[in-house]
Amino acid sequence: MAKVALITGVTGQDGAYLSEFLLSKGYEVHGIKRRASLFNTDRIDHLFEGHHCKHNNFYLHYGDMTDSMNLTRLIADICPDEIYNLAAQSHVAVSFETPEYTANADGIGTLRILDAVRFLKLIDKCRIYQASTSELYGKVQEIPQNEKTPFYPRSPYAVAKMYAYWITVNYREAYNVFACNGILFNHESPVRGETFVTRKITRAAAKISLNLQEKLYLGNLDAKRDWGHAKDYVKMMWMILQYKDPEDWVIATGQTTMVRDFVKLAFEYCGIALEFVGKGIDEKGVIAKLDFHKAKEHHLDLSHLKIGQELVCVDPQYFRPTEVDLLLGDPSKAEEKLGWNREFNLEDLVCDMMRSDLKLMNKDKYLQEGGYTIMRYYE
Ligand code: NAP
Ligand code: G4F
């Protein structure tokens, strides 16, 4: 009998990679998606063969983390062996704008899942993965951060996730639910949401190289993040639920990088060497060197760019009321007990994202040259 998994947040970055991974392991996968006024299944389109395909092992259900009745009914119907609770309003900056909704979906939403499993008497059958986050460390109390590092959340998102973390621990201790927190550090990919900083950068580097955009506006260039590849991280979600005991785990690379340096790596891929001049809100990323050979490798013509041209500027609208300056994870526990090792390092991640965004933006350029309107998607 195939194991049955239920994934909340199936249309998101991690939901898509995890679905692909679990299907490859022979699971029957059920995903909860929100109703949207446009299709929102781009990331899982290649997995879903439609309701009429008999060999389909992938099922989608409408649902929402703010609707207890819906979640309880779905869990009762699906009766999953494993639940991966990935759904969340996951944007830190947006959580300052929508704090109550973020608390409801990210915090109380987790309680709804845990309590549905208890109420339906599925505790002995069902294991639960909770998508916890390195944002819990916020104003970090030690460097690097491990499972024992005290939390100091710095945003409504992180505070909501802190409730979710502790309610997961509480249901484990109070009711013996096999419920685990994966404290995952930032993980990115070609299907990362376009408003997270890495994807914003790789999309802009591709568009600027193709003469589809003039400048990239960013916020805090000094922030440091421990960036890994989402493909590596979803495998760990599964490993966490296969471990003999329910525990909490830090999943990270153990390397931290400044936003500014990620920008340099992305542009370098296209043959554009940037140097940063000035300070604070007057800091600019300007072209120091153009490598036409490298550009040619990626079929890029950089003749529209000039040495000294400003490509990156700071816009204070992207600053956050309270910032997380530095995240650096210590994944020793996962390395020792779960055998955590990674396929992608930072350079591989940047290459994977740049390759994909250049392909995407080349398509846009082709459409534009053919006289079609292309979306600009500014935020
Ligand atoms: P993501 O791309 O933003 O995906 C979030 C998913 O949640 C989407 O499918 C979204 O649906 C869904 N969702 C949002 N609100 C919902 C609601 N009220 N009801 C039902 N579904 C809802 O996030 P991700 O990067 O894949 O991250 C997955 C999880 O891991 C999140 O919980 C995130 O907070 C956490 N996390 C992420 C990272 C990271 O670096 N990526 C690190 C640590 C923890 P739509 O597609 O309709 O918007
Ligand atoms: O890419 P970000 O928006 O990710 P952030 O805030 O670290 O959160 C992500 O990782 C968390 C894990 O640690 C997840 F829990 C969470 O769900 C999400 O996936 O911002 C990264 C850094 C920040 O310091 C931000 O201030 O980049 C800085 N930044 C600078 N300019 C920017 C920008 N961030 C965004 N989104 N946009 C900018 O223009």
From TrEMBL:
Its EC number is 4.2.1.47. The keyword Lyase applies. Its cofactor is NADP(+). It is an enzyme of class 4 (lyase). Keywords: Lyase, NADP. It holds the Pfam family GDP_Man_Dehyd. GO terms for biological process: 'de novo' GDP-L-fucose biosynthetic process. The keyword Hydrolase does not apply. GO terms for molecular function: GDP-mannose 4,6-dehydratase activity; NADP+ binding. It catalyses: GDP-alpha-D-mannose = GDP-4-dehydro-alpha-D-rhamnose + H2O. Residues 6-353 form the NAD(P)-binding domain. Belongs to the NAD(P)-dependent epimerase/dehydratase family. GDP-mannose 4,6-dehydratase subfamily. Catalyzes the conversion of GDP-D-mannose to GDP-4-dehydro-6-deoxy-D-mannose. This is GDP-mannose 4,6-dehydratase. It comes from Helicobacter apodemus. The gene is gmd.
